[in-house]
Amino acid sequence: MQRHRFGRRAETLPEDQLLLGLEEAEQIEAAGEEENERAAPTERQARVAKRRANRGALPAHLPRVEMVVDIEDHACPCCRNGLHRIGEDVSERLDIVPAQLRVIVVRRPKYACRACEDVVVQAPAPARLIEGGLPTEATVAQVLVSKYADHLPLYRQAQIYARQGINLDRSTLADWVGRAAWHLRPVHERLLGTLKSSPKLFADETTAPVLDPGRGKTKTGQLWAYARDDRPWEGSDPPGVAYVYAPDRKAERLIAHLAGFTGILQVDGYGGYRMLADKSGVTLAFCWAHVRRRFYELAAAGPAPIASEALRRIAELYKIEDGIRGRSADERRAMRQENSRAIVADFEPWLREKLGLISQKTKLAEAIRYTLSRWEGLSRFLDDGRIEIDSNTVERSIRPIALSRKNALFAGSDGGAEHWAVIASLIETCKLNGVEPLGYLADVLTRIVNGHPNSQIDDLLPWAYICAPEIRAVA
């Protein structure tokens, strides 16, 4: 009962918590190594040599500041003749200059004609995102990335700026965010429309607490996520995710969001997706991770031979998936037909047999019925190499939303939640495509303010900014 009330719903340890534990262990190990190196110079030299051999190269695009460390006396220490240079040792270290605020001063000279009294000529003022305001588009982009990518609420950002002597009220930052979100709406709409033209999508939703001023508390809205990632089967379309806010979880919201989409939708067990399939002809593929989770909760609570056997069979399917990830859709389908089909074919009658032997009121019976009622959608991955075995792709895209929700607690209004969806969609799509979100948002806002034509809006989508520099690990 305690685990049911207070325990985790998922069967895996949260990655953030796992990394936190590893960080502490690595810190302790490093401190111990430093102490040993100080006590044993030979061991220190060996570790320094190993560190230099394994650290890789720093990116070529970073600016270099050269520092020459030369000898004071260029005379030979033996005969006092002049020394000549025969070479040099070059090493590179990564240095960080703290974020520096600066003021852009715009001067616009005025010109007049000595012969004509009323003639004054002056260049037009550059367009601004915030008319009459202080920030450049890059400053606004920094606020957006800090809030929606680094999960820093605006009041914390105001505190950071105050430490550098810049007093920016939280309401001022909120005004910047709202205006930027308004300008970015067409890009978000185009992103969602592009994703809906795909033959296959993932869908999921998560709660979005929203302040309800009339009642003095929060109401529960929903952020729906629609994602595409064809990389596991070598698809050519770039990955992306679009979030859409809705004040509730009704199926009508889902149907409205995906109007015009007729492909394969990979989802969890929420009943609203069935209504979507009935009304629009969308083909549903269900998620084996959600099936596994139900059996895991039973097996983790104590001895559960049926649940444990179900987990073993599901694990065999995942083992096969690990071996075919990254191959073409045809290869994946062929290997699933050869290896996975028999496992799935044996699994269904086994579940029906066990269901007939147990009480129908137990959690185990509920887990089995959940699985069998979605069997057609669960089996669909066997015949289509484009379909994943689960919907973890979109669930990974939900995690940043959960982090922002944890730090910010709630959105201030339905409009604020819509801004959240717009900006988070662009930032997360940038991350999926390896595009740096700060530079992307700064450039997009600048181009929009300067009258970028709507007919060329595809040039503003995150994957249009993909560049492929040579990137190597530096540590």
Compose a concise summary of this entry.
This protein is 49% helix and 10% strand. The protein has helices at residues 2-6, 15-39, 41-54, 137-148, 154-163, 170-196, 251-257, 272-280, 288-301, 305-324, 329-355, 363-373, 375-379, 392-408, 414-432, 437-449; strands spanning 110-112, 120-122, 200-212, 217-228, 240-246, 264-267, 283-286.
Topology of helices and strands:
Blueprint: H1 2-6, H2 15-39, H3 41-54, E1 110-112, E2 120-122, H4 137-148, H5 154-163, H6 170-196, E3 200-212, E4 217-228, E5 240-246, H7 251-257, E6 264-267, H8 272-280, E7 283-286, H9 288-301, H10 305-324, H11 329-355, H12 363-373, H13 375-379, H14 392-408, H15 414-432, H16 437-449
Describe the structure in your own words.
By secondary structure, this protein is α/β, with parallel strands linked by helices. 49% of the residues lie in helices and 10% in strands. It contains 16 helices and seven strands. The chain has helices spanning 2-6, 15-39, 41-54, 137-148, 154-163, 170-196, 251-257, 272-280, 288-301, 305-324, 329-355, 363-373, 375-379, 392-408, 414-432, 437-449, and strands at 110-112, 120-122, 200-212, 217-228, 240-246, 264-267, 283-286. Strands 5-4-3-6-7 form a five-stranded mixed beta sheet, sandwiched between helices. Strand 3 (200-212) and strand 4 form a beta hairpin. Helix 6 (170-196) crosses helix 15. It is globular and about 95 Å long.
